Amino acid sequence: MSDGNVASSSSTTPSSGTDQDLPAVLGRNLRRLRTSRGHSLERLAKQSGVSRAMLGQIETGKSIPTIALLWKVANALHVPFANLLQADVARGPVVLRRSDAKLLSSSQGQFTSRALFPFDGDHQVEFYEIRIGPLHRESAEAHAPGTRENLFVAKGVVEIAAGSDKPQTLTEGDAIVFEADVPHVYKNLVASEAVLYLVMTYAEDAT
User: What's the domain range around 185?
Assistant: First the structure.
Protein backbone atom coordinates (compact mmCIF):
# COMPACT_ATOMS: atom_id res chain seq x y z
CA MET A 1 0.00 0.00 0.00
CA SER A 2 0.95 3.59 -0.43
CA ASP A 3 3.44 5.13 1.91
CA GLY A 4 5.42 7.72 0.02
CA ASN A 5 5.33 11.18 -1.54
CA VAL A 6 2.05 12.19 0.12
CA ALA A 7 1.50 15.45 1.96
CA SER A 8 0.50 15.21 5.61
CA SER A 9 -2.37 17.62 4.98
CA SER A 10 -4.35 14.87 3.26
CA SER A 11 -5.24 13.08 6.48
CA THR A 12 -8.42 11.08 6.85
CA THR A 13 -11.56 12.68 8.27
CA PRO A 14 -13.80 10.35 10.31
CA SER A 15 -17.08 9.79 8.47
CA SER A 16 -19.17 7.60 10.75
CA GLY A 17 -19.92 6.87 14.37
CA THR A 18 -17.39 4.06 14.46
CA ASP A 19 -14.74 6.27 12.89
CA GLN A 20 -14.97 8.69 15.83
CA ASP A 21 -12.98 6.11 17.84
CA LEU A 22 -10.15 5.94 15.33
CA PRO A 23 -8.05 8.87 16.61
CA ALA A 24 -8.17 7.54 20.18
CA VAL A 25 -7.38 3.95 19.16
CA LEU A 26 -4.52 5.06 16.93
CA GLY A 27 -3.08 7.35 19.59
CA ARG A 28 -3.26 4.70 22.30
CA ASN A 29 -1.61 2.06 20.14
CA LEU A 30 1.16 4.37 18.96
CA ARG A 31 2.03 5.40 22.50
CA ARG A 32 1.98 1.77 23.71
CA LEU A 33 4.17 0.51 20.86
CA ARG A 34 6.58 3.42 21.11
CA THR A 35 7.08 3.20 24.87
CA SER A 36 7.32 -0.62 24.87
CA ARG A 37 10.31 -0.26 22.54
CA GLY A 38 11.89 2.43 24.67
CA HIS A 39 11.55 5.16 22.04
CA SER A 40 11.13 8.81 22.87
CA LEU A 41 9.12 10.95 20.46
CA GLU A 42 12.37 12.48 19.25
CA ARG A 43 13.94 9.10 18.53
CA LEU A 44 10.90 7.76 16.71
CA ALA A 45 10.71 10.97 14.71
CA LYS A 46 14.29 10.50 13.52
CA GLN A 47 13.77 6.83 12.66
CA SER A 48 10.45 7.31 10.87
CA GLY A 49 10.96 10.66 9.18
CA VAL A 50 7.69 11.87 10.75
CA SER A 51 7.96 15.07 12.78
CA ARG A 52 7.84 14.99 16.57
CA ALA A 53 4.92 17.43 16.48
CA MET A 54 2.89 15.14 14.21
CA LEU A 55 3.65 12.08 16.36
CA GLY A 56 2.52 14.01 19.41
CA GLN A 57 -0.74 15.00 17.70
CA ILE A 58 -1.38 11.38 16.74
CA GLU A 59 -0.74 10.11 20.28
CA THR A 60 -3.13 12.66 21.77
CA GLY A 61 -5.86 11.82 19.26
CA LYS A 62 -5.74 15.24 17.61
CA SER A 63 -4.79 14.02 14.14
CA ILE A 64 -5.36 11.02 11.87
CA PRO A 65 -2.34 10.84 9.53
CA THR A 66 -2.22 9.77 5.93
CA ILE A 67 -1.54 6.20 4.91
CA ALA A 68 1.93 7.44 4.00
CA LEU A 69 2.76 8.59 7.51
CA LEU A 70 1.28 5.49 9.14
CA TRP A 71 3.47 3.27 6.99
CA LYS A 72 6.56 5.26 7.94
CA VAL A 73 5.74 4.86 11.62
CA ALA A 74 4.90 1.14 11.30
CA ASN A 75 8.15 0.46 9.47
CA ALA A 76 10.16 2.37 12.07
CA LEU A 77 8.49 0.36 14.86
CA HIS A 78 8.91 -2.91 12.90
CA VAL A 79 5.23 -3.83 13.24
CA PRO A 80 2.49 -4.65 10.71
CA PHE A 81 0.39 -1.67 9.62
CA ALA A 82 -2.75 -2.93 11.37
CA ASN A 83 -1.03 -3.03 14.78
CA LEU A 84 -1.38 0.74 14.93
CA LEU A 85 -5.15 0.43 14.48
CA GLN A 86 -6.01 -2.69 16.47
CA ALA A 87 -8.88 -2.66 18.95
CA ASP A 88 -9.91 -5.18 21.58
CA VAL A 89 -10.13 -8.80 20.45
CA ALA A 90 -13.67 -9.72 19.41
CA ARG A 91 -15.29 -13.15 19.85
CA GLY A 92 -17.63 -14.83 17.39
CA PRO A 93 -18.58 -13.51 13.92
CA VAL A 94 -17.48 -9.99 13.11
CA VAL A 95 -19.51 -8.01 10.56
CA LEU A 96 -17.68 -5.11 8.93
CA ARG A 97 -20.40 -2.71 7.75
CA ARG A 98 -19.47 -0.44 4.88
CA SER A 99 -21.22 2.41 6.68
CA ASP A 100 -18.86 1.94 9.65
CA ALA A 101 -15.67 1.62 7.60
CA LYS A 102 -12.47 3.17 8.85
CA LEU A 103 -11.04 4.81 5.72
CA LEU A 104 -7.48 6.04 5.42
CA SER A 105 -6.49 8.21 2.51
CA SER A 106 -3.58 9.94 0.79
CA SER A 107 -3.21 12.51 -1.98
CA GLN A 108 -6.32 14.49 -1.04
CA GLY A 109 -8.48 11.39 -1.23
CA GLN A 110 -7.19 10.12 -4.57
CA PHE A 111 -5.89 6.93 -2.90
CA THR A 112 -8.04 5.33 -0.17
CA SER A 113 -7.75 2.16 1.83
CA ARG A 114 -10.53 0.32 3.68
CA ALA A 115 -9.59 -2.57 5.96
CA LEU A 116 -11.70 -5.69 5.34
CA PHE A 117 -10.59 -7.39 8.55
CA PRO A 118 -11.04 -6.50 12.24
CA PHE A 119 -8.24 -4.68 14.03
CA ASP A 120 -8.18 -7.20 16.88
CA GLY A 121 -4.63 -8.37 17.40
CA ASP A 122 -1.61 -9.26 15.32
CA HIS A 123 -2.18 -10.30 11.72
CA GLN A 124 0.34 -11.88 9.39
CA VAL A 125 -2.16 -11.42 6.54
CA GLU A 126 -4.28 -8.30 5.95
CA PHE A 127 -7.09 -7.65 3.46
CA TYR A 128 -7.93 -4.21 2.03
CA GLU A 129 -10.16 -2.51 -0.53
CA ILE A 130 -8.14 0.09 -2.45
CA ARG A 131 -9.65 2.89 -4.54
CA ILE A 132 -7.51 5.00 -6.89
CA GLY A 133 -8.79 8.23 -8.41
CA PRO A 134 -8.93 8.84 -12.18
CA LEU A 135 -5.47 8.92 -13.78
CA HIS A 136 -3.85 9.10 -10.33
CA ARG A 137 -0.32 7.85 -9.69
CA GLU A 138 0.57 6.77 -6.13
CA SER A 139 4.14 6.02 -5.04
CA ALA A 140 4.96 3.72 -2.13
CA GLU A 141 8.19 3.24 -0.27
CA ALA A 142 9.53 -0.22 0.48
CA HIS A 143 7.68 -2.12 3.21
CA ALA A 144 9.36 -4.38 5.77
CA PRO A 145 11.59 -7.16 4.37
CA GLY A 146 9.57 -10.17 3.19
CA THR A 147 6.30 -8.26 2.70
CA ARG A 148 4.28 -9.41 -0.32
CA GLU A 149 1.24 -7.85 -2.00
CA ASN A 150 -1.41 -9.77 -3.93
CA LEU A 151 -3.64 -7.35 -5.86
CA PHE A 152 -6.90 -8.12 -7.69
CA VAL A 153 -8.43 -5.54 -10.02
CA ALA A 154 -12.21 -5.41 -9.56
CA LYS A 155 -12.71 -2.29 -11.68
CA GLY A 156 -10.55 -0.25 -14.03
CA VAL A 157 -7.13 -0.51 -15.66
CA VAL A 158 -4.03 -0.04 -13.55
CA GLU A 159 -0.27 -0.27 -13.90
CA ILE A 160 1.84 -1.76 -11.11
CA ALA A 161 5.59 -1.16 -11.02
CA ALA A 162 7.69 -2.82 -8.31
CA GLY A 163 11.38 -2.06 -7.95
CA SER A 164 13.34 -2.48 -11.15
CA ASP A 165 10.89 -5.01 -12.62
CA LYS A 166 8.99 -4.18 -15.80
CA PRO A 167 5.68 -2.38 -15.04
CA GLN A 168 2.63 -4.60 -15.47
CA THR A 169 -0.74 -3.45 -16.84
CA LEU A 170 -3.78 -5.09 -15.26
CA THR A 171 -7.40 -4.93 -16.40
CA GLU A 172 -10.60 -5.97 -14.64
CA GLY A 173 -10.31 -9.53 -13.33
CA ASP A 174 -6.50 -9.60 -13.43
CA ALA A 175 -4.33 -10.20 -10.36
CA ILE A 176 -0.66 -9.78 -9.50
CA VAL A 177 1.64 -10.91 -6.69
CA PHE A 178 4.86 -9.02 -6.03
CA GLU A 179 7.49 -8.39 -3.40
CA ALA A 180 6.55 -5.15 -1.67
CA ASP A 181 9.83 -4.66 0.20
CA VAL A 182 10.99 -2.45 -2.68
CA PRO A 183 9.62 0.93 -3.81
CA HIS A 184 6.47 0.43 -5.89
CA VAL A 185 3.91 2.46 -7.79
CA TYR A 186 0.18 2.13 -8.46
CA LYS A 187 -1.10 4.04 -11.50
CA ASN A 188 -4.71 4.33 -12.66
CA LEU A 189 -4.55 4.45 -16.46
CA VAL A 190 -8.11 5.57 -17.14
CA ALA A 191 -10.32 8.57 -16.36
CA SER A 192 -12.54 6.75 -13.86
CA GLU A 193 -11.99 5.34 -10.40
CA ALA A 194 -10.17 2.01 -10.08
CA VAL A 195 -11.11 -0.50 -7.38
CA LEU A 196 -8.63 -3.13 -6.21
CA TYR A 197 -8.54 -5.74 -3.46
CA LEU A 198 -5.25 -6.22 -1.69
CA VAL A 199 -4.01 -9.14 0.39
CA MET A 200 -0.83 -8.13 2.20
CA THR A 201 1.34 -10.85 3.72
CA TYR A 202 4.12 -10.12 6.18
CA ALA A 203 7.18 -12.22 6.91
CA GLU A 204 6.67 -14.36 10.01
CA ASP A 205 9.05 -12.32 12.14
CA ALA A 206 7.15 -9.11 11.29
CA THR A 207 4.36 -9.99 13.71
Answer: 107-206
